[in-house]
Amino acid sequence: MRVLISVDMEGVAGVADPSDVRPGAAHYEYCRQLMTAECNAVVEGCFDAGATDVIVNDSHGDMTNLLQSAIDERARVVRGWTKRLGMIQGIEEGVDAAMFVGYHAAAGHGDGVLNHTMNGRDILGVHLNTEPAGELRLNAAMAGWLGVPVVLVSGDDVVCGEARDCLGEVEVVEVKRAIDRFAAMSVHPSRAQSMLKESAQRALDRLPDACAYRIETPATLRVDFSSTSMAALCESVPGVQRTSAREVEYRSDDYGELYRVFIVLGLLVGIVPR
Predict the structure, then answer these.
(1) CA 8 to the chain's CA centroid
(2) Could you report the per-residue pLDDT of 141-197, keeping only the tens digit for each?
(3) Which of 6, 39, 22 is nearest to 114 (CA)?
(4) Is-cis flag, bond preceding 218, omega within 30?
C-alpha cells in the first residue's frame, strides 16, 4: 500500500499569523518544526496501518520547509517548487491513497485561518465548474482524475468543513478552530500529533470503502485576480479567455491539463508589478 502525504503549513496546530509561515520571520523556524512533527505523526500512522511506501510532498510556499533530517527515515520526501503536479507531486507513482495535512480554507471562505488559494496576494477566488475551489478541491480533483482517493484532511474547522462538503465521508482532523483569518484556538501540538497518527491509521483501515473525487468534464476553471494586469497577462496563455476585467476562464475535457494550466497561471501572475 503506497500513500502520498501532501503537507501544507497554514493548517498546522499552533499556526495562526502570517509570520508563522514566512521564512525569515520570528516564529517560522518553530512552526516548521511543528509542521515536520505533524507530518511524522501521519507517516507513523500510515506505516502502523500497513503502508509499504510513504511519499511526503512539501507543499507550502517555496516547498522547502520540512526539516529533511527530522522526517521519519522510512518516508521519501519531494522537496522544491518546480513540480509539474505541484502540491501532489508523487501521486503518479502508483499511489493508493492521498492525505492532505496542514491544509487551509479557500480564499475568502469564512474566517478560515490564513485562508487563500495558491497565491494569497494575487488570487481573490477560484471556481471549478460552479463550485468555489480552494487548494483542497483542486488537488482532490487531480488525485481523483488519477483514480486516487483522498482519505484524510487536517487543519482548522473551516477546511475540515470544506473536506466534508467536497469529499463526503473522509477522515478529518480538526487541530484548531478559526477565530479570524489571523487568529485561532489550537489544541496542544502533542495532542494534534496523537490525533493525526490515530486518524491516519483509521483512514487506511477504511481505504477499501474510499471513493476518488471526480468532477464533471468538460471542466471550467475560473480565476478572479486582484489586478486587471494579471488577467490581461494570463489571457496570453493559449486557451485562456478573459471574461471580465479581473477574471479569466479555462475549459478542458482533460482535468489534468486544466490543473497544470492553473499552476502556470499562479506562477505567471507573480511577475506582475504590485
Answers:
(1) 6
(2) 999 999 999 999 999 999 999 999 999 999 999 999 999 999 999 999 999 999 999
(3) 22
(4) yes
- Give the phi and the psi of residue 160 in degrees, each rounded to 5: -65, -35
Residue type, 96: D
Based on the fold, state whether residues 144 and 227 are members of the same structural domain.
no
Instruction: Give the residues across from 77 on adjacent strands.
Output: 56
pLDDT, tens only, 107-128: 988 899 999 999 878 999 999 9
Residues 97 and 229 in one domain: no
DSSP 24: T
- With beta carbons less than 8 A apart as the criterion, state whether 14 and 36 touch: no
Cα torsion 61, 63, 64, 65: sign = positive
Instruction: Give the 3-state secondary structure of residue 28.
Output: helix
Q: Which residues contact 13 (CB under 8 A, 6 or more apart)?
A: 34, 38, 175, 176, 186, 187, 188, 189, 191, 192
CATH code, domain carrying 81: 3.40.50.10780
CB 234 within 8 A of CB 162: no
